[in-house]
Amino acid sequence: MLLAAVLWVGLAFRVHRDARRRVDGGFLVALATLLGLAVPFVGPLVYLLFRPPETLEESRVRRVELLALRDRIGRPEPVCPVCRTEIELDFLVCPVCTSRLKQACARCDAALEPLWQICPYCAAPVEALPSFDLDAALTAEAAAGGERLRRRRQQLSD
């Protein structure tokens, strides 16, 4: 009889400890403990049927992991704008298609963003890349292609 009483109190204590780990409200913990004490040996079984499936710590870890996943999804990995290969943030050129991604600082060789006017690492002014008129280049190429086409037609007609 003494063994049954010790087992009964032990089960009630186990229900109390488990409820503290799984339930955030003091009233619900007390209710679970009373359920474990009120009905000998059946109360803990009823508690097992209705207890939360995860502990408060597991719930907190899951929330943190979800926030980290949302953050990672919201901030995609950088990719090359030409070939879409994943690249590192400090790459100057794409290792796959060799497209120029960033300019190197003339003084400290740090990778510079295209819009920066000054190097944030050594305070050197950013030298502008030599620019060319793309419209003029395309117009000249089209004119040369048109001239080649006229010559080719003339050769075929002769």
Give a topology summary.
Elements: H1 2-22, H2 26-38, H3 43-50, H4 56-74, E1 103-104, E2 111-112, H5 134-157
Antiparallel strand pairs: 1-2
Question: What this model shows, in words?
Answer:
With 158 residues, the chain is an all-alpha fold. The protein has 2 domains: 2-74; 89-128, no CATH class. The chain has 5 helices and 2 strands. The protein has helices at residues 2-22, 26-38, 43-50, 56-74, 134-157, and strands spanning 103-104, 111-112. A two-stranded antiparallel ribbon has the order 1-2. A hairpin with a 6-residue loop joins β1 and β2. α1 packs antiparallel against α2 (26-38) and α2 runs antiparallel to α3 (43-50).
Strand order of the largest sheet: 1-2
Q: How many helical stretches?
A: 5
Summed over residues and divided by their number, the pLDDT gives a mean of 84
Secondary-structure element string: HHHHEEH
- The amount of helix comes to 40-55%
> Approximately how much beta-strand content do the residues carry?
under 5%
* Low-confidence region ranges: none
Tell me the number of structural domains.
2
Chain oligomer state? single chain
- Approximate shape: elongated
Rg (C-alpha, Å): 36 Å
- Strands, count: 2
Distance between the termini: 120 Å
> Major β-sheet, in short?
2 strands, antiparallel
Secondary-structure class:
mainly alpha
Keywords summarizing the entry:
2 domains; two-stranded antiparallel ribbon; 54% helix; mainly alpha; 5 helices; 158 residues
